[in-house]
Amino acid sequence: MRHQIELDALRAPEMLEPIEKCVHCGFCLAACPTYDLLGEEMDSPRGRIYLMKNVLEARIEADEAQPYIDRCLGCMACVPACPSGVEYGDLLVSYRALQEAERSRSLTDAVTRKLVCETLPYPQRFRLAIRGGKIGRAFATLLPDAFGAMLSLLPESLPAPMPLPAVLPAVGERRGKVGLLLGCAQQVLAPAISHAAAHVLAANGIEVHIPRGQSCCGSILLHVGAEDQARQLARGNFPLMPDDIDAIITTAAGCGSGMNDYELLFKGEADAERARAFSRLVMDFSAYLASIGLRPPPGFAEERVVAYQDACHLLHAQGHQAEPRALLRQVPNLRLVNIADAGMCCGSAGTYNIDQPSIAAELGKRKVAAILAAEPDVIVSGNIGCITQMRAHLNFVGDDRPVMHLAQLLHQAYSEGD
Predict the structure, then answer these.
(1) Above 70 in pLDDT, residue 145?
(2) What class has domain 298-415?
């Protein structure tokens, strides 16, 4: 017997308005990576909206819709493509949180989710998990797909930590003051990103504060429906930032997108206003630097051809397409080349590599093929997940050209002339 899921009154507008706004016109189809790959109507945004509506109205069981909802990357490519202004992201986040409370998972699925939620957001645990995972690689073929996917993405070695001071002074005339978020997985996989971002900001006259005791912003958990844990982690950062900063800088597109959703995450909570105030200060590294104007870097002695890969949560969710490219075009001796299907997801999408390994692998393969066709010397992105995904798929085809964050390339452009 079908039962209607009790819809939280606080979250009802975020779920019902998108469902009512969708006219099933189909403009979202061409933008959706899973529809493009699988060719199934229910693996498109309008198909998923139809399924969610029917679950909420008790017309179908949640289990019937779940595989299609799980296959959604949450890349938000459908949002700018929609002529009706459907806020698909609010609907998806709210539905996943609602379903998670009632969902039953297989043992493998439950263990995988527990491992992800209890390691990725915690740098020390994540570091230990990577070291332990290397031992498990010898048994990867004997493990379920999700475990094998996790092991295949592990780096061969971890970089040494690159600690930053609590405050990095501005170079020359001070033009601003910001707080810098270090991220969680990024601290382990690529601490050079935050190090580079801090020094590029300082070189541009920005006083950079790096508060001690930072926690995960909660975005990776928000996007998989673990809202209570996401709120708990997010709250840890609220009191850490100075009161007089101009912005809170993030170098991870997924984190920036998630923190922009704090108003939704904290709706009805006692600290909702504090969460909203924090969220309003959050800016991506590229957007902030473009807004203050780049101090011209010395650039490079020889020409570098750069392919910039758009992270979905920077391009589609936050609308920052022009800013990273504008910064790159100001670097002497750097030539920017375009990638075919630049707005199509690379397949990383937070935990998607683990949850849907075969789809993620195919999307990663396609993205890398498009990048290699552009023949760049260097590949640049604005998100640690995309960087990890592209590096893994380049390794699969035996290509060792560098993949780096925008901040790292800009840091090189300033440092090479020193």
Answers:
(1) no
(2) alpha beta
